Amino acid sequence: MKSDWTKKFSSLAERTSPPEISWLMAQALEVPGLISLAAGFVDQQSLPSAAASGIIQEMLDDVKAGRDPLQYGTTQGDLELRRDLNQRLHAEGVFHPSAGIDESHFLISSGSQQALYLTAEALLDEGDIVLLEAPTYFVVLGAFESRGARTIGIDTDKDGIVPEKLEDCLAQLEREGLLPRVKMLYLMTYSTNPMGISLAEERRKQVFDLLRSYRDKGSPILLIEDAAYRRLCFDGPELAPLKSLEEDNDFVLYTESFSKSLSPGLRLGFGVGPKALIDKMVDLKGTHDFGSSNFGQQILKRFLRSGAFDEHTDHLKAIYKRKRDVALAIFESTFPSDVKWLRPIGAFYIWTQLPPDCDTGADSVLFKKALEERVLYVPGALCYSHDRPESKRSSELRLAFGMIEEEILREGCERLARAVNAVF
Q: How far apart are the first and last CA of the chain?
């Protein structure tokens, strides 16, 4: 008799669903000639293969020294790399001068996604609460919900999360006796996925002060600042991270990823925050993989030290700004007048709003028409936590223009416009 392993799954496994991005990628493979405006991949032509080749060749030319990158590294991450990152972030004003942050407060992770999951694993029990933006980065919802957490979406507009709505939510949870279950607030603060906007400067201080007030009252809530796209902002003023407001490194975990700013193939990111939390995340990471790729970390370290990393991010900003302008010019000339969108200030996402009575979901007439036109987008409903009505039906959609070349981007936008005009 054949075993039915589905009956043996753990409660965590039962709560874990396939990421929605897997389903979207399957659509891209199954429809011949489809142009994906859904995949949040980086610009293919910009990947720094020549620079990486030179760095790797130089690294391995010394046969004896070249063996070190091929050996195991440490679970927390290469010490020199953590020191370099600490020095760089101090110089960039990411940390408050009195915070006392050093390399021991860093964890090198396999992309920032792993840092987020490790945080969830360290802090979340079934029934705990995570607050986040509505809409939010839809992949992270799975990390929190697989732990059995309840996610609550807070209203967000063109300036980011609305502090008054966050304050109201916390007050309501306190009245219900649920405040002790609130473990974290997850925010993307730069060129957010999916909205393409950055949290406004005045709101940064409001959010920080609000959480600090709860900390001071004995109800600490971890503020996860996901700055994955900080280095890809090409419009607007340079804004200081929320982490820079924290004088004692006590309740803000700051994360970055090198997947978008350098190469997703390296699969490297990092988290920096309270020592007790980082130490526990290191313990947990040890049970995952003993540490992120040592070879990749040695490549990254040389990119940072040589200046090639900064040159690359400057190059990317110019590419994505040009692509954004290409996409928006087509929107202006082809979309109906009642279709609105947010103008992204960085990275490569456009959040688009159709009339309220429209549906953009996977079973909608629009989605099916888009597939007929051989173009794919992310339905807005996927970007909302399950407590929000928009998670059931949304008139919004997310477009990504990072990976594809400009001529294909033009064609993809025109196909989408045809689908929208045909349905609405």
A: 54
